[in-house]
Write a structure and sequence with these properties.
With 316 residues, this protein is α/β, with parallel strands linked by helices. The chain folds into three domains: 4-13 and 135-241, 3-Layer(aba) Sandwich (Rossmann fold); 19-132, Calcium-transporting ATPase, cytoplasmic domain N (3-Layer(aba) Sandwich), CATH 3.40.1110; 250-313. It is 45% helix and 21% strand. The protein is built from twelve helices and twelve strands. Strands 9-8-1-10-11-12 form a six-stranded parallel sheet, with helices on both faces. Strands 2-7-6-5-4-3 form a six-stranded antiparallel sheet, sandwiched between helices. The longest helix is centred in the C-terminal third of the chain and has 34 residues, at 243-276. The two termini are 19 Å apart.
Amino acid sequence: MITTIVLDKTGTITEGKPTLTDIFWLDETDIHRSILVGMEKLSEHPLAQAVVNYLGEVPSVVVTGFESITGKGVKATADGQEYYVGSKRLLTESNITISNALLEKEKAWSLLSKTIIWFANQTQALAVMAIADPVKATSAQAIQSLHDMDREVIMLTGDQEATAKNIAQQVGITQYHAGFLPHEKADFIKELQRNGKVVAMVGDGINDSAALAQADVSIAMGKGSDIAMEVAKMTIISSDLSKIPMAIQLSKRTVSTIRQNLFWAFIYNVIGIPVAAGILYPINGFTLNPMIAGAAMALSSVSVVSNSLRLKWIKM
């Protein structure tokens, strides 16, 4: 039985339709804007598409050496300089300076549950951007339903601490971890399993595929990436979290029905086979007509199938 359910944030708890709402430049020039658009057009990340949509009319420049850094962002070369777009962690690890003005914007926007991404050259951050991704209307109720079923619910996200905390509070999650890279999500699930937990992982993106593969039960959101759905054992076509408690209830009823069918089939055989073999003949001369035995066998099959078909009418 599943004891712990691990949820990704973006596209699982939230809508997965990010929109760039704010951008603050430390050094805004036409060439910088063009380089930003040029890099984001080459990225497959949903947040990159939000930037492109926001700056859609800005002409892009050709960038070279484009490289995707898993879970952190991208980098490329333009005009002989390296440029970066991604998380604060990417900039920190690349020894890039971030001004106080940009940090203040980051802090303010993070408190509004917005995801923060950065644009920088090889020495300093040039701009900070805020992207909003609203929580799904059904997420809070679905998570409450999982709590009511005595399931432990944990949120893992690559987003920053402030945004993760705000989203977790909105949907009623007390356990969450921010700033996780894809392999860290998989390692976290592995640690839960070592502690005796049976873990279900729910995600929608490429970054969730390793964690989905590691989990005992993997569930993909149907509007997510093809890789996530390929790895997952179950796909929620509607991407509605409320379907997960329903799926758990349906699985419990299915197992219960299987046990009922096995029980009655066992009882039928325990009684029917000895009678058909003539166990009562020495006592009272009773023998079972083969036609009656065949009808009884057919009736047994009908009863098992009918009992199973009751699942079709269960209202969740």
